Amino acid sequence: MSMLKVSADGRSFVRDGKPFLYAADTAWSAPTNATMDEWRSYLRIRASQGFTAVQLNLLPQWDRSRPESDTGFGLAAAPFKRQGGRSDGPWDFASPNEAYFTRVDALVGEVRGQGLVPALVIFWADYVAGNWCSRRNPGHEIPSGERDGLARYLAGRYARFDPIYIVSGDPDLDSAETSYFYLAALAAVKKAAPACLTCLHLCGNYSAIPPAILDSPNLDFYMYQSGHQAVQDHLRTLAASYRSMLKRPIVNGEICYEGMGRVERPERFGAWDVRRAIWLSLLSGANAGFGYGAYGVWNWHRSGDESVWLDIFGPSPDFQQGLTLPEATKTGLVSEIWRLLSLYEIEPLPPIPGEGEGVAFARLGGGRGWVAYADGPRLFAFPSEAEKGRQQVMRVRVYDFEAGTVSVPRIGVRADGGRHVDCGTCRRDVLLIMETE
Fold first, then answer.
1. What is the pTM of this model?
2. Span 290-311, mean pLDDT?
């Protein structure tokens, strides 16, 4: 199994010469929280469900779940020695604790052993001064003089596992200090592991990438997060904004986590919310992949643990419960549809007037037709370019996600003479496929 590479057209990934969908599960907190037996079981389950990658943080995740009595790092030793040998001194980032990283070696090795791609965070936002996360969690920002050495150490140590390197975790780039830190860290990671693909995972609904980072030859693809806002009406426009940037593969690396509460609302995100985020993102520009997450798994929560986000996202299920959430089991279906329709070749189309935020249209590669997603049963207006070729015989079918059925919908004529596809008999969200014959 070879390393991931960017495709020749610059819009997707390939591995062993074949198109590769980045379908990642999120386990940021595993290095401190997961036992090895739990980890092996988790990876077997996720691999069987069709995931292709696992996202985890090389350093301790600040908002992981932890027992009330836990003042350290769960199952792990501290990642660094203390300056001056003092037990309460600041970390010496030039002195990694071998015991901590030996444990992480084993976790990453198991990911690779299951045929999954490790997607490894180098510096989560709380380790970097000048952004929202380090202001909220001060005390262990990495000095700029130790940044490059630590980045090279981490990237070099794990390069043998052929990972993706997620160089940032959850920052904004509003300050020059934060932006320059990550620009330099990208260069240091590339120097240590030039064959590994790199990206920046940014905070929710963020697309304000500074020109110096946008133009950096050390940034291989875009990873953004549509996040956990109560109202998810930005999915299509956020993906489209990245599509308009310098051409690179685009991944929505953090969609709304299944089972997690909407920001400051009691309702939890369910399977429909997750499907909606995945498909609107895929068809609007982020067709290189997505990062799924389950509440309980990303924070690796156990009954009785404290949860940092209790007041924002509600109580967390245990990680075992998080593994059973329904939409994770459909990941293989997403991958198969993506492969069969060659969605790595699509060209997103502008919104059709009147269709609303819950609909995305894209052109299939090679002039083969069109594909659309809608978050509810509806009448689809044909794209204007499909109307121009209306004499062309087309094969039209609709997949009803909730019913699990494929059907041939009725094609009607509107009052203005244009055509529509009637998906009103479907239960909820649908995928419409229109192929030329």
1. 0.96
2. 95
